[in-house]
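[step 3/7] fold_predict: job queued, chain A
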Amino acid sequence: MLPTSSPPPGHSSKQRRHSRYSLLWLYFRRLFKPTQMDFQYTLWTMLQLCISPKTAYRHTSYHKQTKNHWARDDPAFVVICCTLVALAALAYCLAFSHSVGRSLLTIVSAVAVDFLAVGAAIATAGWALSNRFLRRQNQHSHAVEQSVEWMYAFDVHCNAFFPMFLLLYVLQLVLCPVLLMHTFVATVLSAVLYAVGSAFYVYITFLGYSALPFLERTEVFLYPIAGIVVALPLALLLGINPTKLVLKWYFDYQP
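[step 4/7] structure written:
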C-alpha cells in the first residue's frame, strides 16, 4: 500500500547529512582506537583485491545491507596503506637518498601527498562525476534517492591503489637493478610495469563504481586505459624509462 503522505521537504537530505556526520565521527573515533579496527578483514580484502577484485566489491553490497552505507566505517585499510607507503618510501630512501632531511621529506610526501592528497583529489573527481552525470533517474516517485558517498569514493581509490602499490613500489624496488640498466629491455620492462600498474588502478576504480546499483554508464571510468594503450608504445619509441624518471624526480638519481 502506498503512503498517503510524503516526508517534509529536505527531510531526506537532513537524514543523509546526519548519516554522513555519524559515519565520520565513528571513523575518526576508531582511528585513535586500534583495538576497534578489523585488521584481519582488511588484510583479507587486500588479498582479494589482488586475486579477485570482484569478490572484494561483492562484500561492499553486504556492508550496505547491514550498516546502511557503502563506505567503510573502519580506517584500518587507510592505516595499513599509509604504513606500507611509509615503509616503501623508507626503503627507497635507504637505497637512493644520501640525506636524512631529504629522506624524511620524501617519506612524508609519499604518504601525505602521493597517497592521501592525490587520492582525495581523484576521489573528489569520481564522486562529482558519478553524482552529477551517472546516477539513474528514479522511475518511482516514492523511491529513495541515492548518491555516492565521498568516503566511498575515497575507499575506491584506496582499493585501486593497493595492487598498484605492490607493482610500482614493491616490485619496482626489487627489479631496480634490472630496470636501471642502459638497455632497451630495461625500458620495455619499466614501461610495461607502469602500464600494468596504472591499468590495474583504472580497472579496480571501475569495479568500485559499477558495484553501485544506482549508477549507470560506469564504463567511463575505463576510458583512461585508452590513454595508457597510446602512451606505452610512445614511451618505447622515445626510449622513456619511467623508473629512471621517478627516481630522478624524487632523488636526483643519475644511473
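[step 5/7] annotate
The chain has one domain: 39-58+70-136+147-251.
The first helix runs from residue 11 to 31.
exit 0
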